[in-house]
Amino acid sequence: MSHNPAQYPGSIYDGSSPSRVNRDVVRGAEPEDVDQMVAEIIATQQHLNDLIAGVIALAGPNLGFYGATPVTQPTVTGSRGANAALASLLTELATLGLIVDSSS
Fold first, then answer.
1. Contact 64/97 with Cβ under 8 angstroms?
2. What is the pLDDT of residue 1?
3. Of 41, 65, 76, 86, which has the fewest CB atoms closer than 10 Å, so is most exposed?
4. Which of 82, 86, 60, 80 is nearest to 71 (CA)?
5. pLDDT value at residue 19
6. What's the confidence (pLDDT) of residue 66?
């Protein structure tokens, strides 16, 4: 199979030599590259933690969304035919903070 170097813009892959990834595995990463990768992973994880903290609240087995106080797993009750189940579902989703129940 022939490789077209034009398919790899900005890389040092010439179409015939092992790929950059394979060369790095064989050669091993440079220590400063590893330090940079670890720093980027830590920064990304912290950023994700900050994002999650603004949307999801955890307290043991309890869960809340968008600033709602974490609550235990809700149970939806009521008859499906009489819309009691719908009312229960809306109440529980609102309690979790997933929706704002403006129904009447």
1. yes
2. 47
3. 41
4. 60
5. 53
6. 81
Mark 43-67 as b/e (b = at least 16 C-beta within 10 Å).
Answer: eeeeeeeeeeeeeebeeeeebbeee
Q: Dihedral (C-alpha) 39, 42, 45, 47: value to the nearest 10 degrees?
A: -70
For residue 71, what is the DSSP state?
B
Please state, in angstroms and rounded to a whole number, the distance separating the CA atoms of residues 93 and 81: 20
CA distance 63 to 69: 8
Token pair, residue 39, equals 């720093």
Amino acid (1-letter code) at residue 28: G
Q: How far is the C-alpha of 75 from the C-alpha of 81, rounded, in Å? A: 18
pTM over 0.90: no
Helix (H, G, I), strand (E, B), or coil: what is residue 95?
helix
